[in-house]
Amino acid sequence: MKRRDFLLGTSTLAISSLVTGCSSPQQASLRIRLLKDSIPAQLLNEFRQEFKQIGELDLTVEAQLISLFTSLQEKPKSQNWWSKLPLLAAREKLSSIADLVTLGDYWLVSAIEQKLIQPLDPTQLKQWEQLPPQYQRLVRRNLQGNIDLKGLVWGAPYRWGTTMIVYRRDKFKDEGLNPPQDWNDLWKEELRDRISLPDQPREVIGLTLKKINPQNSYNTPQLAKIPQLKSELKELDRQVKFYSDNTYLQPLILGDTWLAVGWSTDILPIIQRYPNMIGAVIPQSGTSLWADLWVRPAKANDNFSLARDWIDFGWQPEIAALFSRFGKAASPIFAGESLAELPKSIRSKKLLFPSPEVYQRSEFLLPLSEKAQQQYLNLWREIRFQGLGLGDRKSGGA
Questions:
Q1: Alpha-carbon torsion 373, 375, 381, 383, what sign?
Q2: Can you tell me whether residue 182 is helix, strand or coil?
Q3: Could you tell me if 294 and 189 lie in one domain?
Q4: Which of 152, 167, 236, 242 has the fewest CB atoms within 10 Å, counting from its CB?
């Protein structure tokens, strides 16, 4: 499952000693590996002001979620000459392990199964009860990584977003077409060969299920019980110019496509750059949700106090409002609330916060059984490669 882990390639930026002053062995330090641009600078400034006693705030930024997941699999390496000195070697090994790492909710299953992360104790998190129940349930898993309401807590959600429809305002206007509002607009004849979709079976099959009936779930385990699903997918495939996870916005800007389906963190910055040309909508039938989490590496040190403070800090309502105002995604603290219930500073962020009705019809892509996963994969292959011998005419860019 891909999301923005497939952005612009891998790059790593280490930012150390962001807090004024030199650190000493007695001073605390907080080491975080996070996704690029997932934390607004204003939030870091607020954190530094509140936690001036920290000797070092060490941030390592990665451009891809898959790189962050891979970092959890890496074993600390020490090849310096002083590695032969036991005390210094132990200190170096300890300092190379992050206290917290960003992870997408999809990666929880693998991280838990491979024992790459350790559970969090929600009783130590002062703001845990501020988190909406849906997000508490999302991170409660059994040892196989599946949702379990009695399971351990394996992550702390700090931002979330949606799968959206993005479109060319000018093209729709010039052709006398109404702006898209829901998934069924993708099947309109006027958009034949003008659409790009994610190269993702869960996303495309899921949105088709929602088009058929908003009560259908993205996590439907038995696809055969939806008899019209295959024919709807075949018709949708005839509408599509290409499938892509990471090259769908440039063709839209160039006018090669008029409509695309993608992720809010990709789309919202483009709307800011081209507000008169590019529009977006969260489908009224409901859509898929995603969340980024703070997880604790399995070998992180036992001192959880600063990591706990960082998580709690982000869940404070005033900080969550700041996060949602300046960030590319919303804080989960306000998920599902109406615009009238939101703080005034973020009421204009309508594309970050779908209406409560639309939100209730939306859902996370949850783990499926192996049998159910195979159903999705088999149907996807049948639709994508129908009538073809080798390759796929619609992969990649335009």
A1: negative
A2: coil
A3: no
A4: 152
**CATH number, domain with residue 40:** 3.40.190.10
Contact 249, 267 (CB under 8 A): yes
Q: Confirm whether 396 is domain-assigned.
A: no
127 with 215, same domain? Answer: no
Q: Please say whether the beta carbons of 300 and 98 come within 8 A.
A: yes
pLDDT of amino acid 43: 87
pLDDT beyond 70 at 71: yes
Q: Please write the tens of the pLDDT for every residue from 91-100.
A: 444 447 899 9
> 173 lies in a domain?
yes
Q: Give the chain's domain count.
A: 2
Helix H or strand E segment including 90: helix 86-95
Determine how many CB atoms are found less than 10 A away from the CB of residue 69.
Answer: 22
- Structural domain contains residue 394: no
Q: What is the pTM of this model?
A: 0.86
| Same-domain status, 240 and 277 | yes
- Check if the beta carbon of residue 47 is closer than 8 Å to that of residue 313: yes
Q: Is the pLDDT of residue 85 over 90?
A: no
Instruction: Report the alpha-carbon distance of residue 49 to residue 34 in Å, rounded.
Output: 20
Domain region containing 31: 4-160+290-362
Cα separation of the two ends of the chain: 22
Residue with tokens 């009705």: 357
- pLDDT tens for each residue of 305-324: 999 999 999 999 999 999 99
135, 247: one domain: no
Cα distance between residue 176 and residue 184, in whole Å: 18
Residue 320 domain-assigned?
yes
Phi, psi of 246, deg, nearest 5? -140, 0
Kindly state the helix (H) or strand (E) to which residue 46 belongs, with its residue range: helix 41-50
Average pLDDT, stretch 5-28? Answer: 38
pLDDT (mean) for 231-244: 97
As to burial, measured by CB atoms within 10 angstroms (0-12 exposed, 13-18 middle, 19+ buried), residue 263 is buried
Residues 239 and 140 in one domain: no
Q: Kindly indicate the confidence band of residue 24, based on its pLDDT and cuts at 50, 70 and 90.
A: very low
Residues 207 and 84 in one domain: no
Q: Are residues 120 and 179 in the same domain?
A: no
List, in sequence order, every residue forming a beta bridge with 226; answer none if it has no partner.
none
Going by their DSSP bridges, the two strands 140-141 and 56-62 should be labelled as unpaired
Interatomic CA distance for residues 298 and 275, integer angstroms: 44
Does the pLDDT of residue 113 top 80, yes or no?
yes
